[in-house]
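Researcher: Last one for today. Full complex below.
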Amino acid sequence: METTAYILQQIVNGIQLGSVYAIIALGYTMVYGVLRLINFAHGDVFMLGAFFVFYLINKFNFPLVTAVILTVCGTAIVAYLIEKIAYKPLRNAPKISLLITAVGVSLFLEYTLSLNIFFTPNYIAFPRPFEVKSYDFFVFSVTNIHIFIFLSTILSLLLLYFLIYKTKQGKAMRAISHDQQTAALMGINIDNIISFTFLIGGALAGLGGILYSIAYPQINVFMGVMPGIKSFVAAVLGGIGVIHGAVLGGFIIGLAEVFVSAFLSSTLRDGVIFLLLFIFLLLRPNGLFGKRIEKV
Amino acid sequence: MKKFLLALLILITPTFVSAKEKVKLGLIAPLTGDVKTFGESSKNAFLIAIEEYSKTGKYEIEPIIIDDKNDPTEGTNGALKLITQNRVKAFVGPLTSKVALPVSEIANSNKVVMLTGTATNPKVTVYDGKRKGFVFRACYIDPFQGTVAATFALKNLKARNAAVLYDVGNDYSKGLAEFFKASFEKGKGKVVSYESYQKDDVDFSALITKIAVKKPDVIYVPDYYNKVALIAKQVREKGIKSPMLGGDGWDSPELIKIAGNAIIGSYFTNHYSPDRKDPVTEKFIKVYKTKHGVVPDALAALSYDATMLLLQSLDKAKKPDSTLIKAELEKTKNFKGSTGIINFDKNGDAVKSTVILKLEKGGAKYVTTIAP
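Model: Here's the assembly. Have a good evening.
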């Protein structure tokens, strides 16, 4: 009984962590889908989400809901601007230039924002916007933070599904990810759809930042680096470009992290995550749900 | 010609105004980053010490302050700049062991005197059994601090089971965890959980759930205040009520501010308590308080002592040369500092006692002193 309770409790921990990874992984996967670009600046948009919501709530005294909406809009705009300023001029450049630019944007954001005139290089404590309440279920306990994060992830996944499979923009996105040239010939405005994808990706990263800073109440400008890399692993694991793959990948990484810490050793944790990536790349390079590349 | 004479006059004038010879003194400290309050306190103390010295001292001191961001690479670059560009003969700092370790190598190989106030890892002054001759410290070392924490947990808290949670990438945290474990087990205690995490981790839920099952009487978390605050919150959220125990890295006014109730009732080992009854301590606290409005923490007090020690040795040396300063430092006997009497042992480490402080609503309160 004790062991079951322990395992259940660890699953709850893993789902909380996995939810955040899943939300960030969604952004990676969407951008990759339309642009074939691993957007390294995504983790920093995530960081911006945490900072925006922190300043809105604690310096400008906005209520939580307004702050969340403003933050999500804010990060969406930032992601949109990043695409317009940094990626769009390179639309016809080799893919490697785009990749290096993404790394550059990421470092630019981190080190510029760490200046005192913007944010600060220091750690900031993030006061919880609501009281933590704990609910006991039979043998394990769940806090309102767990529930809040899990529901937000599921809700945004459903919204995204609706967007991609039920709207015209979604259809256009799918068409672009299938074949950009043909999609353009069919009268789809590629630039608009790519911008739209960045808006959605930025909004998701912002939401991820909010959830992360509520779950782990401390923020700094480099907070996006590690979650960014791990979510990228999650996106690859699920099959990059596949929406539900990214979510599943996020949960797998979150649970794997928690279980390695819980049953093996916490020192091995990151090693196991990247070993997992390694094995996947060897055996199933397209991830769990990735389409196999047809040989011609 | 007139212009030339005027220019000459301007050039000469400063030498008449200040007859004292100018000497540069460096400080390497984290003024930004995850332990910035350490750097701020120590910078304040460094400047107070220089001001005090200037009243009577032989030289005019020009302070040069470097921000190491608590990052070994930044610290190394800063030290190289101090030595090669500014050509300092001696410097105070770095404050944290992880930065002090690489910087001590540079100082020693360049024959520049380094005196750290607070880096407690043994390897800072001695590596592989070899003493780094130019490196000194004004504080005790981690084997002693870890042992004191274990003794306190066993004797005063009557703890039988302890959990240890430390940062595997930080020499300071890792060293303390090892020394605590060894002494706690030697005293017939049981370390039921010995877990590590990494610097950038913010999610400790898996580890804390694991620890909660073992029901420890005390949790030893030897890390810096920012991480400790985050861990403390998650520990209390998981319903663990046992007190936490830590080292001198906890000494920051930010700790209670960030962690709030989660950290109240926990203990940590420290270098000094502001409640110490001593003229030097009281004078320093008074000056610091009027200048900065707060009671100085141990980081400030130790940096003050380190700077004073260095300045005193500089004053005694025949000329401002690092080998002569080093020789004078080695001769130090019963230096009266704000944190206590300082004598160096053969490794250049100060021999001093430890105080235990308890975190209460109003701040850290003195509990007891444990002598070496």
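Chain B touches chain A at residues 32-34, 36, 69, 168, 195-198, 200, 202-203, 205-207, 209-210, 213, 226, 229-230, 233, 237, 239, 254, 257-258 (CB under 8 Å). Chain B is about 45% helix and 20% strand.
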